[in-house]
Write a structure and sequence with these properties.
The complex is a heterotrimer of chains A (450), B (119) and C (253). Chain A has 2 domains: 2-351, no CATH class; 371-417. Chain A contains 14 helices and 5 strands. Chain A has helices at residues 22-54, 70-79, 91-107, 135-157, 160-191, 196-202, 222-225, 227-240, 252-255, 267-291, 299-302, 312-334, 340-370, 375-420, and strands spanning 2-3, 115-120, 123-127, 208-211, 214-217. In chain A, a hairpin with a 2-residue loop joins β4 (208-211) and β5 (214-217). Chain A is globular. The model of chain B has no long low-confidence stretch (mean pLDDT 82). Chain C is 67% helix and 0% strand. Among the domains of chain C are: 1-79 and 128-149, Four Helix Bundle (Hemerythrin (Met), subunit A), CATH 1.20.120.1200; 194-252, no CATH class. Classes of the chains: A mainly alpha (450), B mainly alpha (119), C mainly alpha (253). Chains in contact: A-B, A-C, B-C. At the A-B interface, α1, α3, α5, α10 and α13 of A face α1, α2 and α3 of B.
């Protein structure tokens, strides 16, 4: 059995960037900008339409064919709304905060690969605005600047709901950012780079598994190789963008509108909404780049030679983006919102330890493959870690078991007590021999005789 | 250097758009003054008077922020380690296990003292 | 050329932000100015071919440390302007000593950079195959001890946060069950009346009606009632006005 992973360099790599003339960069930047604006409009329409169909409604169907122009109508309406500036707000920060939220959201999209090298007006250039040696870290950096927008929006509004909403959602976003950052590590272990174009290239070919003279092609997308990483990332995607079921900041029942309570539905509010949608598209695009092979065509299409060259890959990328975004909507239609303490406990107590354990597992397996000489060391190490994990698990399990038994005993004891003396709990209990009413024409009979 | 120029172009575009939207918002909309509109929104009841110096908030968030820093730094170490893992080999693995176990000591302590619980 | 322009632009931005940080009296503005300074530093690192350092500067300093500052500011009351009373004994003296020491260090660093020919970051990292792998090679081989000590520092940070801010719960958190029981045992009102079938409004300022048409005092909103009594602004409905007065009287008792 010979298991080998040989990433074939395919598509652009880091060396292909930074060679564009300025006008090509401007064209690409304008394209991404317009693309994001349009996809926000399309996304709002699609979300409303799809969730309506999932709930047996029609959804928007008045403005334009299939209600496609609904977002345009909404944007115009928001432009014509009064822009309130409540008395209590901190005027400077209240105005600046939506800008701080939106700009990093747009910037994070600059390292997303849309396709391979193409010829654009006679210039050979990759279909990606730019790439950095630390591209994925750049996305995290932009996300952490975006959090400022949320905190400042909440604080500058100076009203209880807004401040609480701002604090809550920023705490949520930073908590899920940790789990998100950790879920990338597995990908870097396999790809050996932080640059997005090279991660896509590393997913071009999964190598083959040769067994008994047969060579079986292995899956190359990291979503298959690193399922736990992807699942954790998928959860943090929802938490990071404040989407259902983690849309606590917008929990109307408790916080009205959260950090955006004081923003009237003017263009400022439109900007906030746009920032949130762009964030959703960014995390979706990152998931495609890191786990779903980026712009590469999925299996049946990839048999065709022309699938991964020229302008076609952009189409695959868009299709994947729409599919991932649909999953966001699907989740929104299916799941209820969870409680805040559950949200934080899930992020800190489940996602992070699981993530670290998974990283160590991947690294150990990887170390096997890299060096043949030191297997003894790795075995000892793996054994120690495994025994440690079992020990912790055993300890927790016994503690939890004891706690469960105690609680059951308590309930049992209380039940016994209440059976003997129903009034003990303080609740109004009707006496057991209370006469029952059996209709107008029958006389009342004592309890127990029916 | 050249790698960052396109990011700058996109940033200028996005910032221009955002500033433009914020700037024209008061111009395009109507202005109908009304005392209630200028109050903070609290579901129809009169707004709670805000204490001078801003309200105080639970210290809870401080622990979250501190743990965020701790794990952020751990992530920062994990990334180059993951990228260069094939060159570092077993030695790198042992190092990182030691590092993570040490950080997990703090994590376990915070968990045990119920620092991760929200009331 | 591009580097020079960036430097001069950022020099102006970061120095004025730093001045704003020192001169602004409002804590949140100070924190934001500090954020601007840190971002400018990050851009400078990026321009100097240190992309990893730039990203770390943003992720750790601007993202995490500054967020801690902001949270702390929100905890202690954001608008509280600085108190100018010096509480540490000999603060000025030690500040001057620390400043002088920092100046010496800075002078040495600058002198080192000026006197010895610079190798150039791009050239130095080229052999290891890029910025990030080169850093990894250094951190995890030559500076491995410092790396492991960093984890001890992180423990200290987490412990400090716990010791300084965590308040242990002395009693069990009351569950819904316990609260319901307590309510019943004290014999108070168990559930506040809702608007009911006789209600014609569900607004906050409209109290619930009992089956006989009278107003349920329990449902009068205390905040609104207090304002109404203070402003002597009673509704036309005499029953409601009576209920409001009664509610406020009861509360003041």
């Amino acid at each position: 059995m010979n298991l080998m992973l040989a990433p074939v360099p395919a598509g652009p790599s880091l060396a292909d960037f930074g060679k564009d003339p300025l006008w090509i960069s401007i064209i690409k930047a304008v394209f991404i900008f317009v693309f994001l604006l349009l996809s926000v409009m399309f996304g709002v329409w699609m979300e409303r339409k799809l969730i309506s169909r999932m709930q047996n409604r029609y959804g928007p169907n008045r403005a334009g064919k299939f209600g496609l122009l609904q977002s345009v109508a909404d944007a115009v309406k928001m432009g014509l709304k009064e822009d309130l500036l409540p008395r209590t707000v901190d005027k400077v920060l209240y105005t600046v905060a939506p800008i701080i939220l939106v700009v990093p959201a747009f910037m994070a999209f600059s390292i997303i690969p849309f396709g391979p090298m193409v010829s654009m007006f006679g210039v050979e250039t990759p279909l990606q605005l730019t790439d950095l040696p630390v591209a994925v870290l750049f996305v995290l950096a932009m996300a952490s600047i975006g959090v400022y927008g949320i905190v400042l929006m909440g604080w500058s509004s100076r009203s209880p709901y807004a401040v609480l909403g701002g604090l809550r959602s920023s705490a949520q976003v930073v908590s899920y950012e940790i789990a998100m950052g950790l879920s990338f590590v597995g990908v870097f272990l396999f790809a050996g780079t932080l640059s997005t174009s090279e991660i896509v290239a590393a997913q071009a070919d999964g190598g083959t598994w040769e067994i008994a003279g047969l060579s079986i092609p292995l899956p190359s997308w990291y979503v298959v190789l690193l399922i736990p990483s992807f699942l954790i990332y998928a959860i943090t995607m929802l938490g990071e963008t404040n989407r259902v079921p983690f849309d606590l900041p917008e929990g109307e029942g408790e916080l009205v509108g959260g950090y955006q309570t004081e923003y009237s539905s003017s263009l400022k509010f439109a900007l906030i909404q746009m920032g949130e949608y762009v964030n959703v598209f960014t995390v979706s695009a990152v998931s495609i780049t890191l786990f779903f092979g980026g712009w590469r065509a999925p299996w049946p299409i990839s048999m065709w030679d022309g699938a991964n060259v020229g302008w076609w890959p952009m189409l695959w990328f868009f299709i994947k983006l729409v599919l991932v975004f649909s999953c966001f909507i699907w989740v929104r239609a299916s799941l209820p919102r969870i409680r805040y303490d559950q949200l934080m406990a899930f992020g800190w107590k489940v996602l992070i330890p699981l993530n670290l354990a998974w990283i160590m597992l991947v690294a150990t397996v990887r170390a096997f493959r890299v060096e043949d000489a030191n297997r003894g060391v790795i075995f000892t190490l793996a054994a120690i870690v495994l025994i440690g994990c079992f020990g912790i698990w055993f300890r927790f399990d016994t503690v939890l078991q004891r706690r469960r038994e105690n609680r059951a005993a308590e309930v049992e004891a209380e039940f016994e007590q209440l059976r003997d003396e129903p009034e003990a709990g303080g609740f109004p209990v009707p006496p057991l021999d209370l006469p029952h009413y059996h209709g107008a024409d029958r006389k009342e009979v004592p309890s127990g005789s029916n | 250097m050249e790698l960052y120029v396109p990011i700058l172009v996109l940033a200028v575009l996005a910032a221009g758009f955002a500033v433009f939207s914020v700037a024209i918002a008061p111009i395009t909309g109507p202005r109908r003054w009304n005392r209630a509109k200028l109050d903070a929104y609290e579901c129809g009841i009169e707004p709670t008077p805000q204490p001078v110096g801003g309200g105080r908030f639970p210290l809870k968030y401080m622990i979250t922020a501190m743990l965020f820093i701790v794990f952020d730094i751990e992530i920062i170490f994990l990334y180059p380690w993951a990228v260069a893992f094939d060159q570092l080999g077993v030695f790198g693995l042992v190092e990182m296990v030691l590092f993570i176990v040490t950080v997990l000591v703090a994590y376990a302590y915070v968990w045990r003292r119920k620092g991760l619980d929200w009331d | 050329m591009g580097e020079t322009i960036t430097f001069w632009v950022l020099a102006v931005v970061s120095v004025s932000a730093a001045l704003g940080l020192v001169l602004s009296r409002r804590a949140v503005y100070c924190a934001l100015m500090l954020g601007v300074v840190m971002l400018s530093l990050a851009v400078l690192y990026a321009v100097q071919d240190a992309p990893f350092l730039a990203a770390v500067q943003i992720v750790v300093y601007t993202g995490a440390v500054m967020m801690l500052f902001l949270f702390v500011l929100m905890l202690v009351g954001v608008d509280s302007s600085d108190s100018l009373v010096e509480t540490i004994k000999g603060q000025r003296f030690w500040a001057i000593v620390a400043g002088a020491g920092f100046a010496v260090l800075l002078g040495l660093a600058v002198g080192n950079a000026v006197l010895s020919p610079p190798a150039g970051l791009l050239g130095a990292t080229q052999t290891a195959g890029g910025n990030v792998p080169a850093l990894a090679q250094l951190i995890f081989t030559r500076h491995v001890f410092a790396f492991e000590v960093a984890s001890a520092l992180l423990i200290t940070a987490a412990l400090a946060a716990m010791v300084l801010t965590h308040r242990e719960r002395l009693t069990e958190k009351p569950t819904q069950r316990a609260l319901a029981r307590a309510r019943f045992l004290t014999g108070g009102s168990v559930v506040l009346p809702g608007p009911g079938v006789y209600a014609r409004h569900n607004a906050n300022d409209m109290p619930a009606l009992l089956p006989d048409g009278s107003v349920s005092e329990l449902s009068v909103n205390r905040v609104i009632a207090r304002h109404d009594v203070e402003d002597e602004r009673f509704p036309d409905d005499p029953k409601l006005a009576e209920a409001i007065k009664q509610a406020v009287e009861e509360e003041s008792k």
